[in-house]
Amino acid sequence: MSDSSAEPPTADIERRVVVPPAMLEPAQAIDAAIGTDLAEPARNVATATLQQNIIITNQRSGPGFISRALWFIFVGWWLTGFAIGFAWLCSLTIVLLPIAYMIVNKIPTILTLRSRSIQSDVTVDADGNLRITTGGAKQRAFWQRALWFILVGWWACGLAMAVAYLLSLTVILLPLGLMIFNRVPAVMTLQRN
User: Fold this and answer.
1) Which end of the chain is more exposed for a tag (fewer CB within 10 A), N or C?
2) Does this model's pTM top 0.85?
């Protein structure tokens, strides 16, 4: 007894073969076996190149201009003076040097609530992988930075912070004071930004 819902023999069925574009050799083998024309479209798709623009935007976060101005007027100017004095005294001792370094890096934030900038590097390696690296610049060897700090950094840092602080007390020269404050870590330990 035959079932009418049974599939017809395989010889009577038309088969459609879909080949992924990256499989050129199998597409050519299927062309030879069943007489289709799949290899040429697969080759065209597989050899196409993709051009893509990638845009990276580092946006600063933090309070707005009015909040920062109010902070500077009521808190930032005097708190920065204490922070500079404390950081410089800490830098004279080896034990408290990490605390001094941390405070020096935070002086623009203490003065005007300004956050530090972040650097992003984008590279494409030999395999075509896109690598986005976020962080700071590559630093000099530790021994060079330590020698600089011992010979020059400790006193130059104090001088730079004092000058920047005096400049930042005047509203007109505040941007110049902030520029110097941003460079104080480089003066202290040759840190690259």
Assistant:
1) N
2) no
